[in-house]
Design brief:
The chain is an alpha/beta fold. The chain has helices at about 75-110, 150-160, 170-180, 185-195, and strands at about 5, 20-25, 40, 45-50, 60-65, 65-70, 120, 125-130, 135-140. It has one domain (about 15-195): Metalloproteases ("zincins"), catalytic domain (Zincin-like). β8 (about 125-130) and β9 (about 135-140) form a beta hairpin.
Length: about 210
C-alpha cells in the first residue's frame, strides 16, 4: 500500500514519545530563499519569482517549475524574507513529495515491508528525521532534499528501522546494516556536512 503523505510545514503536535527516536542534525542556520533564486531539490529545478500585492495574505503557486509567490500588502523587508522562504519551502516540498513518498515506499518494499501510515517533511534544526509510533508516521528534514541521494536513503532506512526497533540497540543497527551495508559512511558524511545543506550549498557526496 502506498504511503500517505502530507503537505509540509503545517503545525504538527508530536508528543514526547514521538521525538525520542530520531537522527540528530545538530544546530543549523535558517534556510533563506530569495527572489530570482534557482533551487534544485531531488533532481528538479525551481525558479523563485516574487511579486507584491496579494491582498491580506501571501500565497504561492508552482507553474512549470516556477514558484510564483504573491506577497500580502504591507510586509516589510524582514517579514518579506521570512514569507518568501516559508512559502518557497512549502511549494517545493509539495512538488517533490510524491517522488519522496515513492522512494520511501520502494526502500521499504525492498528491505523491510513494514506498514507505514504517513510521511511528512519539516524544516527542523535539531534532527534529520523522526518516527512516531502513535501515528505510525515518519517525518524527514526538509534539508535532506538537498543531500546526495544515498545520504537521503540512509536517513529513510534509519527511520524505517525504528518501526520495528524503537531504540538504537544492536538489533536496530543490524536492520540498518542489512539494508545499507555502508551506512556508516553516510552517517559520517551527515555529521561532517549536514549543517551546510541548503538550496545554495551542495557539499561533495560521500565516497563509496
Amino acid at each position: 500500500m502506498a504511503t500517505r503523505y502530507e503537505i509540509p510545514f503545517r503545525l504538527f503536535f508530536i508528543g514526547r514519545r514521538a521525538v525520542r527516536r530520531r537522527v540528530y542534525s545538530g544546530g543549523m542556520k535558517r534556510i533563506d530563499i530569495r527572489d530570482g533564486q534557482t533551487v534544485s531539490a531531488m533532481g528538479k529545478n525551481f525558479t523563485i519569482s516574487v511579486s507584491d500585492g496579494a491582498g491580506k495574505s501571501s500565497r504561492a503557486r508552482t507553474e512549470n517549475d516556477t514558484v510564483n509567490i504573491l506577497l500580502a500588502e504591507g510586509i516589510d523587508g524582514r517579514q518579506k524574507n521570512k514569507h518568501v522562504s516559508l512559502l518557497a519551502r512549502k511549494a517545493i516540498s509539495k512538488s517533490v513529495m510524491p517522488d519522496l513518498a515513492a522512494k520511501v515506499d520502494g526502500i521499504n518494499a525492498r528491505h523491510f515491508c513494514f506498514g507505514l501510515s504517513r510521511l511528512g517533511l519539516k524544516d527542523q534544526k535539531g534532527r534529520w528525521g523522526s518516527y512516531s509510533k502513535g501515528t505510525n508516521s515518519i517525518y524527514l528534514n526538509f534539508r535532506l532534499l538537498f543531500a546526495p541521494e544515498d545520504v537521503l536513503d540512509y536517513v529513510i532506512v534509519h527511520e524505517l528501522a525504528h518501526i520495528k526497533e524503537l531504540n538504537h540497540s544492536r538489533n536496530f543497527w543490524r536492520l540498518v546494516e542489512n539494508a545499507m551495508p555502508d551506512y556508516k559512511e553516510k552517517r559520517k558524511w551527515l555529521r561532517k556536512n549536514g549543517a551546510a545543506l541548503g538550496p545554495s550549498i551542495a557539499p561533495k557526496p560521500p565516497q563509496s
